[in-house]
Amino acid sequence: MKKWAFVSDFDGTISKEDFYWLVIKKYFEEGHDLFKKWKAEELLDIEFLQTVFSSIHQEEATIIEDIVSLQIDEAVPRFIRDVQRSGGDFYILSAGTDYYIKHILSHYGIENVDVISNKGYFHEKNIHLTLNENDPTYSKRYGIDKAKVIQQMKNEYETIYFFGDSEPDSHPAVNADVTFAKAALISILKEKEVPFVPVNDFNEVREYLRLHNLL
Question: N or C, which end of the chain is more exposed by having fewer CB within 10 Å?
Fold first, then answer.
């Protein structure tokens, strides 16, 4: 069994803004009303994302240019290298799509990171998702069940560290050994009485891991 792994959400945790907001602001004005319907639970998360991502109507070069313009936490590239140098494995676990995440990783020269997410591809000026209902980690609501992913990983690692920022991250937080929480996830985990370490960014996570002799 391996020693430890660090698993991070992407949108709002690694990136400073959810990719779907970038799309809504630039290309899909109707997405503001769709967002309200989603938050009112009239749409599943995956239905909301599929609609937004298929409403871009731009050439792939333009979409990639938009993707790499997405700001990320400046500490992330170094943090990932520190984890890997210290014997840990770094994973990105996202209910978005690996299509834009992999472009971001490539843009920043980040290597040897497994992305566990909904499969995405470019077709006819939009991003589309491929969902596999037969996958053991499939979720009807999110496309991917983050909690089940963490449960599987616990068979491989002695300790799982997890970092997230929003409601979908509250489910894997229950299964991780140590959860770092920011933004909305803090109040959600307080309400659910799930233990967590409150942080603002990856620099604060690094300090925690350094104090515990992991980095």
Answer: N
8 A C-beta contact, residue 98 and residue 10: no
- What are the respective helix, strand and coil percentages of the chain, to the nearest 5? 40, 25, 35
41 CB burial (10 A radius; 0-12, 13-18, 19+): exposed
Q: What angle is formed at CA 64 by the lines to CA 61 and CA 70, rounded to 5 degrees?
A: 145
Is the model's pTM score more than 0.85? Answer: yes
Query: Helix H segments across the chain?
Result: 19-27, 31-39, 45-53, 60-69, 76-85, 98-107, 146-153, 170-173, 184-192, 202-211
Cβ(166)–Cβ(184) below 8 Å: yes
Distance CA 107, CA 102 (A): 8
- Whole-number pLDDT of residue 166: 96
Q: Which residues of 168-204 are buried (b: 16+ CB within 10 A; e: fewer)?
A: bbbbbbebbebbbbbeebeebbeeeebebeebebbee
Helix and strand totals (H; E) in the chain: 10, 9
CB 88 within 8 Å of CB 2? no
- 47-75 confidence digits (pLDDT tens): 999 999 999 999 999 999 999 999 999 99
Dihedral over Cα of 143, 146, 148, 150: its sign: positive
